[in-house]
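Fig. S4 source data, part A: sequence.
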Amino acid sequence: MQTAYTVLIMLMLVSVSRLVGRVIPLPLPLVQIFAGALLAWPTLGLHVALDPELFLFLFLPPLLFSDGWRMPKRELWRLRGPILTLAVGLVLFTVVGAGYFIHWLLPSIPLPVAFALAAVLSPTDAVAVSAISRNRLPTPLMHMLQGEALMNDASGLVTFKFALAAAVTGVFSLANASVTFVLVAVGGLAVGVALSWLVGRLRSWMIARGWDDPATHVVFMLLLPFAAYVLAERLGASGILSAVAAGMMQSWLDLLPRQTSTRLLNRSVWSLLEFAFNGLIFLLLGLQLPDIIKAVASHETSLWPTLLYRCLDVVAIFLVLLVLRFIWVQSIWRLSILLRRLRGKGEITQVPTARSCWLLTVGGVRGAVTLAGVMSVPLLMGTDIFPERDLLIFIAAGVILLSLIAACVALPLLLRGIEKSPDDKRHNEVRDAWRKTAEAAIHALESEEASPQDASQAALAVELKARIMSEYRHQLEVFNDSAEAQALAFQMDLLERRLRLKALRAQRLELYKLSRHHQIGDDVLREVLAELDLSEANLGTVK
């Protein structure tokens, strides 16, 4: 029962922290960390013991799956060059540079373990940046941070696992590691795509036989990231990349027909899951802080001098990470601007170059994935205790806190004087999507063939089609209580809902066509599709 009480208390705190975050002008992760630390204070004394492997398995697959699902893929493809340099090149640059620095600063941490720590400090959190900047970042920069956060979650954590394996086994070969990295990465992507495709085919088969209960399909979606992760790990591939690939693949398969109720339920469930899991991770960080601090200073005679030195180490590591990121961003940024100008594309250069570099640098906030990764460090290395595990967690927690605080201070200053211009391109895409889908609905209604019926029924159908196509008619008039009037009202209501349903499905098919031909982006697709799904859900069951 104690475990159940603890879980309920933590979920309640996650919810309350969201309300408190609306009053206190601080990012939600900082509020949740503070709440967890307060809860772990000796007076309250809530203690949560974490199993590293369970923590990694429970939190990472659904969060990475959701990131892959929601990532706007058209923008990801358009900015693939800068995103790949940030998500892969910067990760490797950080692992080497920060790894050697950590080993030099703290010789008690072996070099492979220092590389592992640098790798787990590489993933960034675009959600936290968006919350801090209050969506004032220029759209191309925000897309770059989103794409980087998605890709470097995978690259950083895969590199982290390789470095951990080298630390545990004591064997490392760059050539073998490079080949293994490619095989593991490609294998993980293939497993994720294949499993997601098979689940999509299974759902289509179920729908074709009338098994379209939304709850059943949503449960499949909830289990998919865990299945993709476990299957890939069992096959020796990357479970992390498998979860990401499954999410990206599922965003295409989510456009199955007759799945309006499932999509609506799925969005609600995943929004709840993301909110709860992200909140629990930061809350757990706060809960672990007192134990982490005690463990770091447990071998020293005095607490405060030791803690001060460790905090200075964290500040030094954070500053090195910031400098490495700025050097990389500045170099790649100049090369990117040169290439885009040569190709006649100036989309990213709307903001002054120096300010853009600093925005991208400070925007590299560490978050939930870093914490989940470092918490997964094993307790033992063979028969011995893993070297400096508590110190690793302390450094990662400190870097997360410093990156959040630095972003809170620097981003508003850097964004001062920058008014985010309206996204005319996206607005035009939304307008065109509604216009073209409305035209498709009107054409579908115009081509509606009249079924054999008497003259009164035919006149009624004509009147209802005109009412639907105009979209400005009033709702059905109030009927009197006579049985004939009620029967007529029922017939009109049923016929109207059938016609509206046909029009909405025609709109949806046209929307899918626009997406397949890359005339609209994923964000526009989701926005318009959500409106169409809500409209169809409001019609109720149509027989």
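Fig. S4 source data, part B ends here. The beta strands are 380-381, 384-385.
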